[in-house]
Amino acid sequence: MTSSTTEVINRIVIVGGGSAGWLIAGLLASEYAAGAQPGVSVTLVESPDVKTIGVGEGTWPTMRGTLRKIGIPEADFLSECGAAFKQGTRFVGWVTGADEDAYYHPFTAPAGYTGINLVPHWQPKRNEISFVNAVSPQGYLCDRGLAPKQAATPEYAGVANYGYHLDAGRFAALLQRHCTTRLGVRHVLDHVTAINGAPDGDIQSVSTASHGAIEGDLFIDCTGFAALLIGKHYQVPFVGKRHILFNDSALAVQVPYAGPDSPIASQTISTACPAGWIWDIGLTTRRGIGYTYSSAHTDDAAAADTLRAYLQRSPGLAAGEYEPRKISFNPGHRAKFWHRNCVAVGMSAGFLEPLEASALVLIELAGKMISEELPANRGVMDVLAQRYNEKFLYRWDRIIDFLKLHYVLSRRQDSDYWRDNRSPASIPDSLQKLLALWAHHVPWHADFSQRDEVFSSASYQYVLYGMGFATTPRIGARHTADAERARQLFTENSRQADKLVRNLPLNRDLLAHISEHGLPRA
Ligand SMILES: Cc1cc2nc3c(=O)[nH]c(=O)nc-3n(C[C@H](O)[C@H](O)[C@H](O)COP(=O)(O)OP(=O)(O)OC[C@H]3O[C@@H](n4cnc5c(N)ncnc54)[C@H](O)[C@@H]3O)c2cc1C
Questions:
Q1: Could you read off the pLDDT of 375-433 as tens digits, one per residue?
Q2: Ligand 1 center from residue 7 Cα (angstroms)
Q3: Are the beta carbons of 118 and 127 closer than 8 angstroms?
Q4: The overall pTM is greater than 0.90
Q5: 52 Cα to the center of ligand 1, angstroms
Q6: Nearest alpha carbon, ligand 1 atom 17
Q7: Distances in Å between the alpha carbon of 134 and those of 122, 127, 462?
Q8: Whose CA is nearest to atom 14 of ligand 1?
Q9: 222 Cα nearest atom in ligand 1
Q10: How many CB atoms lie within 10 A of CB 302?
Q11: Is the C-alpha dihedral spanning 310, 314, 319, 325 positive or negative?
């Protein structure tokens, strides 16, 4: 059977049931009310034999919109996924490695961000106040372990911007239950044994061990590193990025809190180490901690020692010996993501490294674009595929620049890992050009061409000026004219920070309250 250009795209088959598979299933099924009408059907096939990756516990604020769209009440999500609020990342030891070396990349944009660039006004006082504290209350909230909202704040709304820390295994289980019981997604628990092509080159069906062949019009490859459809079947090349981003290994552990009152951090803690960095993510019942490192710069035994030393010196953890799980990955992405009637989403599309939690947000963006622009028929699919590939290649490149920025700005001299990270050969041209530009021009909206950038100029500002980068801007009339407005915003921010510090509950206290009383519905 060959596909004709007028063939309607109705049968969507997702292969893989990790976070990627179930998020895409939820976004598609909620957009098209799958099962509630004849029309679009969503089937998810998941192998009982291949485990999900089981990490991926930090999200972006976008996850709030995604969960709301899928129709999961926030209180249910928080309690079923052991989830906690995340307000950004605290980077420890990334600049020099000295004791006091730490800065925040918070989720709340700098005050007045849509209309005024505060950096030129903050720079003269950079020795008095950090950039983050001058322009946002969020560093103060994170310092004190405070929640981004109050018990009376409606679900998915916040006083400060936030995403989540979640248990990846429980998240996939919640999405599965919701998608199958509420959204009409058909779930097939079976191993895919073959991909069957049609004569025209499209995928016609996937064969399963005991459910026969499952036919579809559009196939979504969410098979993780196996990349069964995009890689094994279509042989779409993989573009390695290890020459830019060196990390290719991780050791991960899950550690209970020392006691029921141990504080839950409001941010991911990312601590620089000799050959990589350690993530520390606080859920309600445990912390997820892992060392991601470059195998070219250390070995597994030394990495395990580094992780153990971190666990021993970290307050609030239950004592014990924790056996880490090793995960290897090849940083990079596919040369394209949508090929014929197959789209790769999640780890099958690529993975760079855990820094700044950019993987789940890319899955959400993929789900949004596929569901909002689902091709009506086979004839228009290639047009959308080309647009999708251009958009996502741009996004991967921008993410690579942003992640590399964290390493390039470091002044650490303690190991080859940090020195090699600054070698010009490892820095993409695009980032080198931006850094040259930003020596005299503060990052601003016009530096990036897309309306929905994954990392906006606000994120660049937080990292650049958090890491001590100095810009020598032109003295311009606009900055002078904005001086009064800037002064007002700095004062308002300081007042707002005082008020929030007094009024917001502790992260742990609010989560306990929500688990007992729920949250007001929006
Ligand atoms: C160390 C590390 C830390 C990370 N931290 C973060 C983070 O903090 N934030 C973030 O956003 N992301 C993070 N990520 C990425 C994140 O984990 C993934 O993007 C996310 O979990 C999605 O994975 P996935 O669903 O693509 O793949 P997987 O979870 O691997 O799922 C693959 C699915 O495919 C199925 N499958 C495979 N073969 C077959 C077959 N033959 N037949 C049927 N089914 C099959 C499996 O059964 C499974 O259900 C991290 C990744 C790593 C490696």
A1: 999 999 999 999 999 999 999 999 999 999 999 999 999 999 999 999 999 999 999 99
A2: 32
A3: no
A4: yes
A5: 5
A6: 56
A7: 7, 11, 11
A8: 56
A9: 26
A10: 13
A11: negative
